[in-house]
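G.,

No rush on this.
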Amino acid sequence: MADARTDRLLGAHVLAENAGDVIHAATLAIKFGLTVQDLTQTFAPYLTMAEGLKLAAQTFGKDVSKLSCCAA
């Protein structure tokens, strides 16, 4: 969830196997006031659960039906 005015991440839910690997990144993003745009510009090793947070952030500004596994 992001603030519509500031684009800052306000909260996150992760419901997946290995969710603990992802939620730490979201916790840091919230603690340090990162925006959705900041998250889209992060790097995570591809094919890891952490990459899912970046892909989720990208959906804030793109048509989800047009995203692929390698969305940029």
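When you get to it, here's the other one too:
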Amino acid sequence: MPDARTELLILGVHLKSEGYPNVLYRLRDLQAASECRVAEINVPMWTAGTQGSQGLRRVFRNAWRAVFAPVAVIARFLAAPRPQRAYLPYPAVPVLALLSLLPKRLRPGRTVADAFISLYDTIVEDRRIFRPGSLPARLTKRLERRAYRAADMVVVDTPQSAAHLAREFGLPRDRVVAVPLSTDEDHFRPSPYVPSPGTCSVLFVGTFIPLHGAEVIAGAARLLADRPDIRFRLVGDGQTAPEVGAVLGQGAAHVEWERGWQSSARLAAEIARADICVGIFGGGDKAQRICPLKVYAYCAVGRAVITGETRWTRETLAALDYEPFVQVPPGSPEALAGAIVRMATDPQLRIAYARAGRRFYEQELSNAIALRRIRPLLC
């Protein structure tokens, strides 16, 4: 709990775990390096207990936590001295919505919220739990708009995401700022790249959501089935796994697929063993504006990256005097296969992109850069 000397209060229903690296490592860095005195009020909306239960029991326990956690946070907040600054990690919307009901004199002097992933985008645009335009979808959007308007500043990961969030929820553009995600630099550390003799390993790690376009990667593997020197490794599982399996079943060879998610240590080892790492290749507006977390990991380790051309990749490359990754048209297995062949047959090209990727991470994506950009908003 905070005391009367608190300058920065971490306030939320966040879960600090490997599954939410932006929360875990952002808070760790703020608490270790901030000039502000830091305190925290946190009642996690999700816990190991709620996630481990099954069936209806799990549904009811999660629903109860979703209601109880933000109310408990606000109750503890009101019982403590009013802080000068508050930072709300993801998911900030439930606590922000309740804060918006309080008179301004009872709110923090300045509130900074991390939007990370829009609630509306996730449940309406991505997962289609609610149909766009339906009453539940409209209510979700209205709740999220009210929540963000209660914040003095809203943080997202890229300038493209910032412009979208401001437009989508009617926020002043100067109140939405781009700060790189904080990631696991304990495990995803630079590893000098040495080309593999004989074969070239192409790696994809992901949760197989639609914007990843994993079926495009499977299509490229099928097109390169006659190239025993190029081997694909897929790590992960998820929504589009059946489509990926169907494409691979049409004749792809030299493909290993490890289903199920792995620890950060295991993923870092997978990346370090790879020659080429592939990003996202799906369509849709969301894919246009994000820097995928997997690209952070690939570049942090220092491996050559091929990813789909998006508004984020184009505008990022336009601002640099070097190329940290190769971009290809999204949705095109042929373009991806061609880029893989060019890189697979040129070890020096892979070395150059591996070094450029690590340079990009250090200059644009690292936790030090993220802390440098967010600290002035908070202290």
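The domain at 8-183+367-378 is CATH 3.40.50.2000 (Rossmann fold). The chain has two domains: 8-183+367-378, 200-365.

Enjoy the weekend,
O.
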